[in-house]
Amino acid sequence: MRPLKITMTAFGPYAARQEVDFAKLKGRNFFLIHGPTGAGKTTILDAMCYALYGATSGNQRTGETMRSDYAGPDLPTEVIFDFAIGERLYRVSRRPRQEVLKDRGKGTKVDNGSAALYRLDENRQETALLADRHVTEEIEKLLGFKGDQFRQVVLLPQGDFRKLLLAGSKERQDIMQMLFRTELYRSIEEKLRDKYGLLREQGQQLLSRIQYVLSSAQAVNREELVQHLAGNRQELERAQANTGLAKQQLERAQAALTQGRLDQERLTERQAAEDKLKQEEQLIPIVEQKRRELGKAKLAAGLLDLEAHLRQLEEEVKTQEQKIAEQRGKAADAKNAYDGALRLLHEENQREGQRKAAAAQKIYLESLLDKAAALSAAFRQAEVSEQAAAAAQKSHLETAAQLTVLERRLDEAGVQYELSQTEAAQMGGRKAELEKRLRLRDERYRLEDNRLKAKQNSEQLKKLEAAYEQKQEQYLGARTMLANLQHAWQQGQAAILAAALTEEQPCPVCGSTSHPEKARPSGSLPTQEDMKAQQERCDKVGVEKDSLFQAVHACRAEGNALQQLIAAAEQELNMLAAEPVASFEQAVVAAESDYRRSEQAAKQAIVIKTQLETLTEELKRLTELGKQSQERHHQAVSREQADKAVVKERLAALPPEYRDEKNVTAARQAAEKELHELEKRLVHAQQAAEHASNSVASADATLKNLIEYCAAQKEKGTVTRQQFAERMTQAGFTALEEYLSARKTPATIAELEKRIADFDLRLAAAKERCRRAAANAAAVAIPDVPVLEAQLTACNEQYGAVISRSNQLGELVKQQEKWLTELQQLDAEQNRVHGNYQIMASLFEIASGKDTGVTFERFVLGALLDEVALAANARLKSMSRNRYILQRKTSRDDKRTLSGLDLEVYDNYTGFARQANTLSGGETFLASLSLALGLADVVQAYAGGIHLDTIFVDEGFGTLDPETLDFAIKALLELQQGGRLVGIISHVPELKERIDARLEISLTGRGSRAEFKVG
Length: 1015
Prior knowledge:
The protein is of the alpha+beta class. Among the domains are: 2-144 and 949-1014, P-loop containing nucleotide triphosphate hydrolases (Rossmann fold, 3-Layer(aba) Sandwich); 304-350 and 661-730. The protein contains 22 helices and 17 strands. The chain has helices at 41-53, 135-143, 147-153, 163-166, 169-180, 183-217, 222-241, 243-281, 284-301, 304-349, 352-424, 427-499, 528-573, 581-651, 661-730, 736-742, 746-776, 785-847, 856-879, 921-942, 962-977, 989-994; strands spanning 2-11, 14-21, 30-34, 78-85, 88-95, 98-101, 108-111, 114-120, 126-131, 155-156, 884-889, 902-907, 912-915, 950-954, 981-985, 997-1004, 1007-1014. A six-stranded antiparallel sheet has the order 2-1-4-5-8-9. Strand 6 and strand 7 (108-111) form a beta hairpin. The longest helix has 73 residues, at 352-424.
């Protein structure tokens, strides 16, 4: 890495914009940063380190605390650093969190800070690479080390550059791992450790599996398992022979119990039928009483319509009598209203004199309206003239103030135009950053979706595998049952053949004429149809099993494809794959906000430019306007005097109370309103009297009609009541109370009919049931069902025990055969794994440094550290006048820790080696400087991707005596001959005299300034 230019704005003691352009060194590679204490020498290194890593050179101050106290609120803190890595040029910019002025309105807002990395072409044109929090990560990849390593190898700040020399073995390992890229050797260690652990785990798993199989088989070893298998096979043959006899006994017991239960049910039914018949016969008297009630209810039902009509007439008479009473009240109210309307009409006729007076007043006031309007117009004209004169005078006086304001607006618009142009210049880089963020966000969404699909696929695979295993067991069971059926069928065929044999006739199988032991059938024999049905069931389960197997295979393939997509996405996203989806959305929003801000700034710049042109033209216009305003003022004063004379003349022509046009208008409107109100009241009184007269006539006619209708309804009620009494007598009812008692609703009558009919049906059914039950139970003895059930239970248990024992033995034999086969396979696999484990254990112990404390990676780093020490000693021997030599410590003081990367200093004066922290301040500075330079040489030689083209040293030279200082300067001067840029910070006066290329830092009243002085 080689610095090209640093631009600091409001950073540290640099209040304004400060550029440090290293091109001004004019090819010199060795320069001094010089200036008074506190002027800002170290701030140059702070800015460089902050731009790259977001932290200062000493890692003690944050970017927020580095804001200049001299800077104004309109100038944000920012560092821009241009640097080269080989032939490639880069630019990194970074802003800390800070308060800035609001874009609109007054006050400040918090800017959360930003960072951006650009690739530069040969013309220093930017191409955006990354923004914000990923910038530091990319810088570490480009330079090859993190911030801490940068401050120990390239930029050696005050008090920190000794850390590389005094660092512990572990810290030195971290630094060298990053610089020499020894991940390969560490990955070899890790792979050996993983392989060693995997083989050890496989061996333990195999041993556990063997023990598990033997434990499951309840055997100490494989030989004992073989003995158990032979004994169980013999016992299985005996159990299968006892199954037929137990089955015959079970069938006989089942037949006896079935017949006993049937006899018991017949006897129980006969008793229940007799009980039911007695119960129904007890209800006969009650049902007969209900029959009589039903007859009377049907007679009363014939009078219901006439009774309803009579009730309706009575209710209608009551309603009409209420309406007659109400209508008489309404007729009286109408008469009273009519009398009141006549009195009101008489009163209004008496107001004729008032109406005539109001009409005369209206005519008089209308004659004054034109004069009052002319006076008001004169007043308004005079007021307008007076205001015009005042406005002309005010316009003339304000012209100079307006010109001053306009000039200030021109200056402000110019500043805003420059700021907008600066912001708009970043639009291209921000657009590229936005496109990148959108692509990363979409990739992250696809990754999240594939992860969810992979999880669902895993759950589906577990379900399918479980279903497949269950279907596999069903298939094996179906095959076993089919084999048993086939075996039983074959044995049955032998029994059938034996039944056909006769003495002295040869057997068609063996040819013998003697048949002492013929085969006999054991239980029921399976048929061809039984075996065919079982074969079909077996085939069906087999098809289902194969279908599930294909589904498992397809699900597993889909899962593998998803995992490949996930791995590809994680490789694409790298470390960002672990970031939550929301952070990608936030990054897109932030990038889009930056881009929109630049886009808006570009538009705003165009608008501001137009405003500048408009303001310039406005300045010319105001200048001319000032000349014209004075002339307009003189003319306005003359018009004002003439208009006031007209007002005086018109005032004399009107009474004082009517000089205001509003007063005249209001008085005329009041007179007109009074006249209208009087005429309106007269018309209203006339209309009310007419309406009241009509209401009286209508109310009287309605009352008469109601009285006549009510009398007619009463007459109808009398006739209907006589007809009801005659029909009630004809129906057999002697009194109204008897009729009301017998009356029932149609629903109640229907319910009585249904209940009586249901009883008749139940009684007939009970008699028929009793007859059938007596016939079925004739000559039936009472059975002993509990005894028969006990006999069946005993036979069933005996048969189940025989079958269970036979099945258990069959399954045990199959399982023991599987265990024996599995043990043979496990023994072979254990021998293979044990051989590989012994080889891998030896390799792992060597690579992990179990005995020596030096791992494989540390062994490689130790060899590299030897080269670094050799390169460092080439300078340290010269600067220390052949007294000190750096060397790697090979002894191991503490066997609990790793070793191999510790440094010590060999003292040629004493002949002993000692720890580096025992050196004096000046000696430590020389050793640290030599080590840093040596490390840079070796890293540059080994790692083509790391360019250590620069080194900065902050202080330390004041601890050296003149001769040692001369050796140190000579060593640094040798570096520039190889093209390396060397910068040192020091107060030592001799250095200022000896080094002709200097970056001079000076203090001013408003912060510091930096300037290169060469030659």
